[in-house]
Amino acid sequence: MINVKSLTVKYSDFTALNDITLSIPENKATCILGPNGAGKSTLLKTIAKLVDYKGCLYLDGLEVSKTPIKTIARLVSYVQPIDTREFMGLTVRDVLLIAQYPVTTGFIESSFHLERAITVLKQLGSDKLIHRKLNELSSGELQRVVLAIGLVKNPKYLLFDEIDLHIDIGFKKSLVKLIRVWSRDKTVVFTTHDLVFGTSIGDYFILLDQGRVVYIGESEDLINNVELVEKVFNAKIITYRYGERHILIPIYY
């Protein structure tokens, strides 16, 4: 379980997260919502021990700032949009083998690790990409590889920043189903700017605004606080019931 108490993160003179306290439940899909600059990415990076902080942050009872990064890396996958220029023409196979380094004990290019990479790509319907170079992929194909990078080391916690970036409507439908499968035995925490997508799949919600938590709770409670969501996003939002779920839909006119 992830527990945060009085957490503050500053970048020079800018406060990205301001004295937040929250808990993220296990084996659920938690969706972090908020406008640009709200602190969504910073919260994920802090959990993954990628930025310094003040306050307390516990991951399975381990205080993150006092725990070796290798231990955190075994528990957590933090994945964000990637810049292919940083990878200098590496193939999908290469990056998925590299991503497994924190959980390897021997030679990283063993048959086991290659089979694991292929299995994850098949789950995403992208195994044909394995020998392609990252800088040859479309933005949608690259995003599927980003998802595979998160999954391939089989962590307990999956942290996805902008999980649905560049994903088309058809694969978003598949992604909703995949997140439901992943969250059966993992804790999935993701950010998105798509309210429809987020409320279609999220079990638990954190709403951030200017580095502060303004809402945290279950899906149905979020729906009952739609006025708060409208205020945070400065937009008109309606609710729509589809099956057993209520979905938030922004209105652009």
Automatic annotation (TrEMBL):
The keyword NAD does not apply. This is ABC transporter ATP-binding protein. The keyword Lipoprotein does not apply. Pfam families: ABC_tran. InterPro entries: AAA+_ATPase, ABC_transporter-like_ATP-bd, ABC_transporter-like_CS, Metal_Ion_Import_ABC, P-loop_NTPase. Keywords: ATP-binding, Nucleotide-binding, Transport. Residues 2-235 form the ABC transporter domain. It comes from the Archaea. SMART domains: AAA. One of its GO terms (molecular function) is ATP hydrolysis activity.
